[in-house]
Amino acid sequence: MQPIKSKPQLNSAQSHDAAALRDIVAHILGAATQRGASAAEAGVSIENGFSVNVRLGEVETVEHNRDKGLGVTVYFGQRKGSASTTDFSHKAIAETVQAACDIARYTEADSYAGLAEPQFLAKEIPALDLLHPWSLDTGAAIELATACEDAARATDARITNSEGAYVSTHIGTRVYGNSNGFLGDYASSHHSLGCTVIAQHEEQMQRDYWYSVSRVPAQLQDKISVGQMAAQRAVQRLQARHIKTQQAPVIFQAEVARGLLGHLVRAISGGSLYRKASFLLDSLGQSLFPANFSIDERPHIPQALGSSPFDSEGVATQAHYLVQDGVLRNYVLDCYAARRLGMQTTGNAGGVHNLFINDSGCDLPALLQQMQRGVLVTEVMGQGVNTVTGDYSRGATGFWIENGEIQYPIEEFTLAGNLRQMFSQLVAVGNDVDTRGNLFTGSWLVENMMIAGE
Length: 454
Description:
Layout: H1 12-34, E1 39-55, E2 58-76, E3 79-85, H2 90-105, H3 138-155, E4 159-178, E5 182-201, E6 204-214, H4 223-236, E7 246-252, H5 254-267, H6 270-274, E8 295-297, E9 320-324, E10 327-328, H7 335-341, E11 355-357, H8 364-371, E12 374-381, E13 391-402, E14 405-418, H9 419-424, E15 426-429, E16 439-440, E17 444-452
């Protein structure tokens, strides 16, 4: 098996781990073939790091972890078996491969099962610059988390309690290979800093939080501003009022709007489609958003949290549109779902990679001015989203807007609508993009929704 071309790794210790993991994957594939499997695939990963949590100036937890795991899937024709283990010894690997083979021999044949076709596999690994270790020891991490919490508690006298602050840092390597000739790996890092505090006014208490996350330590938001933001968000929610049931425009703040993008992804994902459990079944080529909005995937952005050179089946990731000029152009498919639907994989086994919706060139204050009167939603709760019908019903908190300005916080109301209608009534998207994940969006202004209050 010839490994695909890979750019030099950034960290020699991590490279050594990758080389060892590649050997394990190659060994697993060979062992599966020796046991009569007509095809096989294997994935191995290892991650290490630590996290600290402090609360009210005291250390609550310090957790160091070194996680590892491997999984193997074998095919006997189109009968499939899978097994996994966290033990990398030769004996455990042999037993895991044997277990997968035993399972496959007793499963029903599935005509859609199988490895990714060779023409879709990644031929080269782009340099995505995903690995940035943080030279942070436990003591420094505790100091950082403590300073973040102290900043939050000092922001306002109404911050009366804290649920704590945390610092987390992890690096890891993933290797995937299959018997169609693919063997690839990449290393990545993930660092975060966050804080949650409680504000009180008379008998009312409100809780809120803020956090920062990045692959690059130097790109994390400053500890003081993270703490202050958590405190300001909690204080702003004090003295919340109830509103009457009505219809009104709604702005979903960026971190909440990210969830709306997530609902879209789930509705156009292969599993929902071939099970006929999506309100967007048979919707390719249909107008879904207004014509001035497009949604595209950009999997090769250096250092981005959602970047990946290949998906979990070894298929090359590539930039493409899901929605173009308002029209749904592509689904989100792995190989199995693509076969079920009579289509081709989109390189999305394991999910999407850096999804963007274009903004309308205005910030959040400009969106408020455009809306004039309505609700700014800062948090939603509950599980009231039906992907089969598109019906949307979530409890929410936020602010009442009059004359384009925030008037007062509001709570204990419910937003009700249908996702297809919400998408079609998208008026504007802010440029206040939330970059803390793989779904990139600013705040959404939706023309009209039912708001159930008093």
